[in-house]
From TrEMBL:
The active site is at Y145, F429. It comes from Pseudarthrobacter enclensis. This is Acetyltransferase. It comes from the Bacteria. GO terms for molecular function: aminoglycoside N-acetyltransferase activity. GO terms for biological process: aminoglycoside antibiotic catabolic process.
Length: 429
């Protein structure tokens, strides 16, 4: 059935440029797929301007035959698939360019005919042919992407932090905080994020929208957001090394709550001191943050860690290795050793048996003949899960996702794939 469609790819463009009508129609179809009914033409124009900055590529599936009478015309795609390229921090400050997949929708009346499968397999193959070793996405549902070789590589959680008198940090401040005009984040946010990006395994380079959102320049409704407040953190040298952008949720929300819109801290002290600031906001008893790390130093720095109510922990970044030797050789490893990995790939992009040899933290990866005894047998999705050090191979062995053929090799993999600090991704896309 997917042969009845023409798949077309074109770049995002801003208003006034050739191709805008096609790009806008595509964006409308995405809105339909995600049940958005309120986007105005102005909002779409602002979004498309940010997509152009990101260099997004839009893929659409268009009906080739006659469309049903009075139904949406043929120039409205029945399926959408967006991509952009950003760097992924793969641990120890190393960066790898990644194919980011987003805006995946298939019109209800055309679903389950293989359109997603076709767009995904064609796109991953093209990215691999282009020399890209990993793809990544954030998923609307947990059941869709494993079949294409993606594995969960980082987690996040929503927290509600009790900031009444109970909140007390066991931390001696080394810097200071000061309130700022939110618009300063248009310049400040990318510079601070860049530092965080370079020291956080699992971090993905941010799209243009983030600085606009953090500064209140562009809210989720497409307009300026006057409710946004911003506070900066200054390190001991006086330089800005962190910020938080936040909103008061109003007097109807009880307990009175501030919600974190974006919290980016380039040092451990900046992180705790921004929390100290949030907890000190008067007339507020709770701070909520929907994108908090699971492995959170805040919990360990609090006199009473039960100030944090965190019930909702979930998958965040899904990674898909497209080229096993290139991806594994790009990483730094904190433990030397050797592993033979037998990797299966449902899309046939990069399966095989590989010897991973680590010397002085550097990897050499050699394909070895099929039949060579392997230490670990795993699907590419499991390898992608452990790649950023955020998911433990021993746990995946216990879950049956990794088969350990040589005793102790899951633990060896855990030591080899460890990263220097907790894996966390602050970028949704
Ligand atoms: C990265 C992102 O953008 S995440 C956002 C994903 N989009 C959404 O959630 C929007 C609403 N959903 C949709 O638009 C569609 O249902 C999609 C995009 C999820 C699926 O599109 P379809 O064209 O129907 O998928 P397609 O027919 O290619 O199915 C491919 C496979 O995935 C499976 N599949 C598709 N959707 C789902 C799902 N929601 N849950 C479980 N399995 C699914 C199919 O059964 C099929 O399995 P198989 O090939 O192993 O037999």
């Amino acid at each position: 059935m997917s042969g009845n469609y023409d798949i077309r790819r074109f770049p995002a463009v801003s208003q006034g440029k050739a191709g805008y009508a096609e790009a806008e129609t595509w964006a409308k179809a995405v809105g339909f797929g995600f049940h958005e009914s309120t986007r105005t033409p102005e909002h779409r124009a602002r979004s498309l301007a940010t997509y152009e900055v990101d260099g997004r590529i839009f893929t659409g599936a268009y009906q080739t035959g006659e469309v049903a009478p009075s139904s949406l015309p043929a120039d409205v795609p029945v399926a959408t698939f967006g991509t952009l390229r950003k760097t992924l921090n793969i641990g120890f400050g190393r960066m790898l360019e990644a194919q980011l997949v987003t805006a995946v929708t298939v019109r209800t009346s055309h679903r389950r005919r293989g359109l997603l499968r076709r767009m995904m397999t064609e796109d991953l193959q093209a990215a691999k042919d282009d020399g890209i070793a990993v793809a990544a996405l954030t998923a609307s549902e947990g059941t869709i992407y494993g079949r294409f070789g993606y594995g969960v590589a980082s987690l996040e959680r929503s927290v509600k932090v009790d900031t009444t008198a109970r909140f007390r940090l066991l931390h001696q401040p080394t810097g200071t905080v000061e309130v700022a005009e939110p618009k300063v984040l248009l310049d400040v946010a990318p510079a601070v994020f860049d530092r965080v990006h370079r020291h956080t395994p699992g971090s993905v380079g941010r799209q243009e929208f983030y600085r606009q959102m953090a500064s209140g320049e562009l809210g989720r409704d497409g307009k300026e957001d006057p409710a946004i407040k911003a506070t900066l953190h200054y390190g001991p040298d006086g330089g800005i090394d962190g910020y938080v952008s936040y909103k008061f949720l109003g007097w109807d929300t009880e307990p009175y709550t501030v919600e974190v819109v974006d919290l980016v801290a380039a040092t451990d002290s900046a992180y705790l001191e921004l929390w100290q600031y949030l907890a000190a906001i008067d007339l507020v008893d709770r701070v909520s943050w929907p994108e908090a790390p699971v492995d959170d130093p805040l919990a360990w720095a609090l006199a009473d860690p039960r100030c944090i109510d965190a019930s909702d922990s979930r998958d965040m970044l899904w990674v898909r290795i497209l080229d096993v030797p290139a991806a594994l050789e790009a990483r730094h490893y904190p433990a030397d050793g050797s592993l033979v990995l037998s990797v299966t790939d449902p899309l046939g992009l990069t399966g095989g048996t590989f010897r991973l040899e680590i010397n002085g933290g550097q990897a050499a990866v050699e394909p070895v003949p099929a039949g060579t005894p392997a230490d670990l047998e795993l699907d590419v999705s499991a390898l992608s899960s452990i790649y950023l050090g955020g998911v433990c191979p021993v746990t995946l062995r216990a879950a049956g996702k990794i088969r350990e053929l040589a005793s102790g090799s899951a633990l060896r993999a855990r030591q080899m794939f460890a990263v220097e600090r907790a894996t966390h991704c602050l970028t949704h896309f």
